[in-house]
Amino acid sequence: MADPVYPRLVAARLRGQASYRVSFALQCLTAGLAFGVADLVAGQLDELPAHIRTGSFDVLLLRPLSTLAQVLTADLHLRKVGRVLASLATLVWALARNDVAWSPATALLLVVTPVCGAVIFAAVWVVANALCFWLVDGQELANAATYGSNAFTSYPLTVYGPLPRRLFAFVLPGAFVAYYPALALLDRPDPLGGPALLCWLSPPVALLTATAAVLVWRFAVRHHRGTGS
Fold first, then answer.
1. So what's the pLDDT on residue 1?
2. How far apart are CA 214 and CA 11, in angstroms?
3. What are the TM regions of this chain, as residue ranges (predicted)?
4. 40, 87 in Cβ contact below 8 A?
């Protein structure tokens, strides 16, 4: 019988998350709530490659509406709403058991952080799936970018090496989804020596990321040639 390595890794991760409060709050803020909201809003983009291959996306071009808005509002899965509600309950439970120095600023941060995190995740979803306009089979790449970024944000930034740390913090701004806000919520300095200002930059980073995603989408649609069917 094969050695049950995977269950051991899962158990080790759970112990590590439970003993490292910043990481635990990070997990709740990111995979639990921000990603759940992003999946609810932008998860429909996973169907984009199929629409491109079959030519059904070309129908959207004939309507006087934003193609991105049409794709995002094409369907709504109620099970995703349940995931968001469960994640919200988990977040409340986790924060009740962590030493949060409550103030108007931290309360506002707690409200804004999941929203900004969802915007960042949704922007990654848009950009990753926009590549499918040029790639024959870009679904795997899109999934790696979207679900991979969710897995990446489940761990503290300190566990990664210098190169992926810089990539993740400033190119794919996953560190602003929850790592930096969680430090502010728990009133802890950045172990990597980053300035405290980074903990409050999620809103402008989310705005810039969303703007870039919309520009990439418009560029991709403008150069889409259709399937000819």
1. 45
2. 40
3. 20-38, 108-136, 167-186, 198-220
4. no
